[in-house]
Automatic annotation (TrEMBL):
Keyword Transmembrane attributed: yes
Cellular component GO terms held in the UniProt record: membrane
Keywords, sorted A to Z: ATP-binding, Membrane, Nucleotide-binding, Phosphoprotein, Translocase, Transmembrane, Transmembrane helix
Highest taxon of the lineage: Bacteria
InterPro entries (UniProt xref): ATPase_P-typ_cyto_dom_N, ATPase_P-typ_P_site, ATPase_P-typ_TM_dom_sf, ATPase_P-typ_transduc_dom_A_sf, ATPase_P-type_domA, HAD-like_sf, HAD_sf, P_typ_ATPase
Protein's UniProt name: Putative divalent cation transporting (Ptype) ATPase
P-type ATPase A domain segment(s): 52-149
Chief localisation class: membrane
GO MF annotations, alphabetized: ATP binding; ATP hydrolysis activity
Membrane topology recorded in Swiss-Prot or TrEMBL: Multi-pass membrane protein
Organism in which the protein naturally occurs: Leptospirillum ferrooxidans (strain C2-3)
C-alpha cells in the first residue's frame, strides 16, 4: 500500500510527500534484508564444521585430504585429538568419542571394532582404522544442516502487523466508499487527492520501524546485562514465550564430570578408594572420567608416586575396565582396576551389597564405577566412585524465576533418561518422562517435562509440536545438535560456552557465565511489548479517527478537511515523533503476553469513538460557532488531530492507573516538539491558514477534558477487551 501511495504522490506531482514515503519503504527493506542474512550465517557456520581433514588410504599409500572428498568405502585412520571426518565403522582399534556435539550426552562413548562412530565427534582417546559409511550431508551431522535449512517460524509480531494493517484497510476502505456513494457533490478534481489522503491516513507507516526501534533500544540495554541479540525479533518474542525447551549438557549443567561421592567397602577408607581410583587413571590424558578422579584427588591432597607405576592399560570397551600395575613401598606388586560395576564384581568375590549400593546411585542418574585391588593373588572390591555432570549454580534459580513469570521449562537432552530425570528434579523441572526417545511432528507432548535420549531432529520436531499447539517456544542450547531447534524456535538462546554453530543459529547469545541473561531478556521483552502495544493501539485509534473525521468533515463541508500535504505533516509529527514510545518507562506484565489483535481492534474502536466525539465537537464549533472558512477548517482539523493524539498517548500509555511510572524523557521531548510544530504552523499560518488565539485555546481546553475522560474510562475498557 505504501508503494501505491508513492505512485499517487508522484502522479499528482507532490514530490516531497512521495520522497518521504519512499525513504520509509527503503528503511523497512533494509531491515528485512538484515533478517534474511542471519539464516545464511547459521548455514555457513554449520558447513564450516565439516571442513576438516582426514588421513585416508588410497593408491597403496596414506595421504591427508579434505574430508569433503571422502567417499563411502574409504579407509581412514582416526587418532586422538582429531575430529571424526565422516560416519564410520571401526575395522580395528578402539576410540573414546565425545558425542556431546551430536547428542548432548555428557559421558563420552566407547567404540570398538565393528561399532559405529559419527561425523563431528571428538576423539578423546585411542586410535583406530575405520571404513567410511556416509559423508557430507548424508551423515548424522550433515542432516543437522538440512534441518536448519528447513527451519521456519512466522513471527507473531509480523502476523500482528499484517492483521492490524488489514483491519485498518478494510474499515477505512469501507468508510471511503460509503462516503463517496453518499455524497455525489464532491468535485471530481478532489476525488484523487481525497483517495490519497485516506490512503495515507490508513497506513501505520512507522509501525514496523517502531517495532525495530523498540527492540534496538532493548538490545542496547541487554548488551550491558550479558545478553547479545543477533536477531531483533527474538527480543519481541521473549514477551510472548510461554515454554522454554532447555538442553541439559552445557546449558543447565557445566558439561564437566565431577566426582561427588566415594563409597568404601571393608577396611578401606574413602581416601584409600579415591587414591586407588586415581592410580588406575591417566592424569595426563583427555578422558573426562580420569580427569575428574585425578582432580578430586589433587584437591584433597592425595598424592601417589607415579614412578612406581609399571604398567597402565587404558579403558577397554571389551572388558569395560582400566588397569594399572604398581609396586608398593615393600616391593609387592599390586593390580588396581576400575570400571563398570558388574565387570569388576565378576572378577572378584561377588558382593551383593556393592551391587545394591551401585544400582541405587545409578537409579538416580549418576555414573558409578567400581574399584578393585589384587594383591598376593587375592582380589577384592574396595569401593565405588560416583560421578555426575553437575547443574550450574543458577539453574534452579532460573527455573523458579521463569515459573513465577508464567513460563514452563522442559528438559530436552540426548542423555540417558535416568540422568535427565535426576537433573530435572534437582533444578525444579516438573512433569514426567516422555515415554519414547523419538518425536514426530504429529506427537502430543502434553504435560511431559523431560524428553531424554533424543537426537537433533527430535528436538527440532518437539519445538514444532509445541508451536503447532499454539505455544510460543524458546530453546536454550550450546551445541550443534541444538542448532535446528534454536533456528526453529521463536526465541533461540545460546549460552556463553556454546559452539559457533549454536551461537549463529540463536537469536540471543549470552555473553556472561550463567543463565541470568534469560530472565533479563524476558523482562525486557515484556516492557518492549507494552511499548509497542501502546504504539499499535494509538495507531489504530489515530488511523480510524482520521478517516472517520475526514468522512464527517466531507459530509459537513462537502470538501476534504485535510489535504495530502497536511496528512504527510501529521505522519511526520504523529507517527514518527511518537516512535519515542519505544523508549518510554513502563512496567512489564507478570505473565506471558499475547498479541490479541481482536482485542486491540475492539479496544481501538471504543477509544476511537471517544476521540472522534472530541474532534467532531471541535469541528462543529469551527463550522457553526466560529464560521471558519474552508482553509481555516483544515487548519483546525490538523491542530485538533495532533493535540488529540498527544492526549490519547498520555491517557493510555499505562494499562493500570497512570502514575506508576513517569513518561520517558524522549517521549516528553517528542511531545513538546510535536505540539510546538503544530502550534507554530497553525497559529502563524505556515502551509495553512492561521488560527486565532481563541480557537487554539478552545482546542487545548477540549483536548485536556478529553484526556481526563479517557483516563477515567480506559481501565474498564482495557480490563474488558485487552488484558489477558
Amino acid at each position: 500500500m505504501l508503494e501505491l501511495a508513492v505512485i499517487l504522490e508522484f502522479f499528482l506531482e507532490r514530490y516531497l510527500e512521495g520522497f518521504i514515503i519512499l525513504v520509509l519503504l527503503l528503511f523497512n527493506a533494509i531491515l528485512g534484508f538484515f533478517e534474511e542474512t542471519q539464516a545464511q550465517k547459521t548455514l555457513a557456520a554449520l558447513q564450516s564444521k565439516l571442513a576438516v581433514n582426514a588421513s585416508v588410504f588410497r593408491d597403496h599409500s596414506w595421504s591427508i585430504v579434505s574430508a569433503s572428498i571422502l567417499v563411502p568405502g574409504d579407509i581412514v585412520r582416526i587418532t586422538m585429538g582429531s575430529v571424526v571426518p565422516a560416519d564410520i565403522v571401526l575395522l580395528e582399534g578402539q576410540l573414546l568419542l565425545d558425542v556431546s556435539l551430536l547428542t548432548g550426552e555428557s559421558v563420552p562413548k566407547e567404540v570398538g571394532t565393528g561399532e559405529s562412530g559419527y561425523s563431528g565427534s571428538l576423539v578423546r582417546r585411542g586410535e583406530a582404522l575405520a571404513k567410511v559409511m556416509s559423508t557430507g550431508v548424508h551423515t548424522r551431522f550433515g542432516k543437522t544442516i538440512q534441518l536448519v535449512k528447513t527451519a521456519y517460524v512466522e513471527s507473531t509480531e509480523q502476523k500482528a502487523i499484517l492483521q492490524v494493517v488489514r483491519n485498518l484497510t478494510f474499515v477505512n476502505g469501507a468508510i471511503f466508499f460509503f462516503v463517496m456513494g453518499a455524497d455525489h457533490s464532491i468535485p471530481v478534481t478532489e476525488v484523487l487527492p481525497l483517495l490519497l489522503t485516506i490512503l495515507l491516513a490508513s497506513i501505520p507507516v512507522a509501525l514496523p520501524a517502531t517495532f525495530t526501534l523498540a527492540a534496538s533500544f532493548g538490545a542496547r540495554l541487554l548488551a550491558g546485562k550479558g545478553a547479545l541479540l543477533t536477531r531483533l525479533s527474538s527480543l519481541e518474542e521473549a514477551a510472548t514465550m510461554d515454554i522454554l525447551c532447555a538442553d541439559k549438557t552445557g546449558t543447565l549443567t557445566k558439561n564437566e564430570l565431577k566426582l561427588i561421592a566415594v563409597v568404601p567397602f571393608g577396611k578401606a577408607s574413602g581416601d584409600d578408594v579415591l587414591k586407588m581410583a586415581a592410580m588406575a587413571s591417566n592424569d595426563g590424558g583427555q578422558d573426562p572420567v580420569d580427569l575428574a578422579i585425578c582432580n578430586e584427588a589433587a584437591r584433597l591432597n592425595i598424592h601417589m608416586d607415579r614412578s612406581r607405576l609399571t604398567q597402565f592399560v587404558p579403558f577397554d570397551p571389551q572388558t569395560k575396565t582400566a588397569k594399572a600395575i604398581w609396586t608398593d613401598e615393600s616391593g609387592e606388586v599390586i593390580s588396581i582396576e576400575k570400571g563398570a560395576v558388574r565387570a569388576i564384581l565378576n572378577e572378584c568375590a561377588f558382593s551383593e551389597d556393592a551391587l545394591i549400593k551401585a544400582e541405587k546411585w545409578q537409579s538416580e542418574g549418576f555414573r558409578v564405577l567400581a574399584v578393585s585391588m589384587e594383591k598376593l593373588g587375592l582380589s577384592s572390591v574396595e569401593g565405588l566412585v560416583v560421578l555426575t555432570d553437575p547443574a550450574r549454580d543458577d539453574s534452579s534459580k532460573l527455573i523458579q524465576e521463569l515459573s513465577l513469570l508464567g513460563i514452563r521449562t522442559v528438559l530436552v537432552t540426548g542423555d540417558a533418561p535416568k540422568t535427565a530425570l535426576h537433573l530435572a528434579r534437582e533444578v525444579g523441572i516438573s512433569g514426567e518422562l516422555y515415554p519414547r526417545q523419538t518425536i514426530s511432528e504429529n506427537d502430543s507432548p502434553g504435560s511431559y517435562g523431560v524428553f531424554a535420549g533424543v537426537l537433533p531432529e527430535d528436538k527440532f520436531n518437539l519445538v514444532k509440536v509445541f508451536q503447532k499447539a499454539g505455544h510460543i517456544v524458546g530453546m536454550c542450547g550450546d551445541g550443534a545438535n541444538d542448532a535446528p531447534a534454536l533456528s526453529q524456535s521463536q526465541m533461540g538462546i545460546s549460552v556463553l560456552t556454546a559452539t559457533d554453530v549454536a551461537k549463529s543459529a540463536a537469536g540471543i547469545v549470552l555473553t556472561r557465565p550463567g543463565l541470568e541473561g534469560i530472565v533479563e531478556t524476558v523482562l525486557e521483552g515484556r516492557r518492549i511489548f507494552q511499548r509497542i502495544q501502546t504504539y499499535t493501539l494509538n495507531s489504530i485509534v489515530k488511523k480510524v479517527v482520521t478517516v472517520l473525521f475526514l468522512a464527517i468533515g466531507l459530509l459537513v463541508t462537502h470538501h476534504a478537511v485535510l489535504t495530502p500535504l497536511l496528512m504527510v505533516i501529521i505522519l511526520l509529527t504523529g507517527d514518527f515523533l511518537t516512535m519515542s514510545l519505544s523508549t518510554d518507562n513502563v512496567e512489564g506484565s507478570k505473565r506471558p503476553n499475547v498479541w490479541n489483535v481482536q482485542g486491540l481492534t475492539i479496544t481501538g474502536g471504543i477509544l476511537s469513538f471517544i476521540f472522534l466525539t472530541f474532534s467532531t465537537t471541535i469541528l462543529f464549533l469551527g463550522v457553526k460557532a466560529f464560521h471558519l472558512s474552508l482553509g481555516s477548517i483544515r487548519s483546525l482539523a490538523f491542530l485538533t488531530l495532533v493535540i488529540g493524539n498527544q492526549a490519547t498517548i498520555y491517557a493510555i500509555r499505562e494499562r493500570g492507573p497512570s502514575g506508576n511510572s513517569l513518561p520517558g524523557r524522549w517521549l516528553i521531548l517528542s511531545s513538546v516538539v510535536d505540539v510546538l510544530i503544530a502550534l507554530v504552523l497553525a497559529h502563524f499560518g505556515v502551509l495553512m491558514k492561521p488560527l486565532s488565539n481563541q480557537i487554539v485555546f478552545v482546542v487545548f481546553l477540549g483536548a485536556f477534558l478529553y484526556m481526563i475522560i479517557l483516563y477515567r474510562l480506559k481501565i474498564v475498557i482495557f480490563n474488558r477487551f485487552l488484558m489477558q
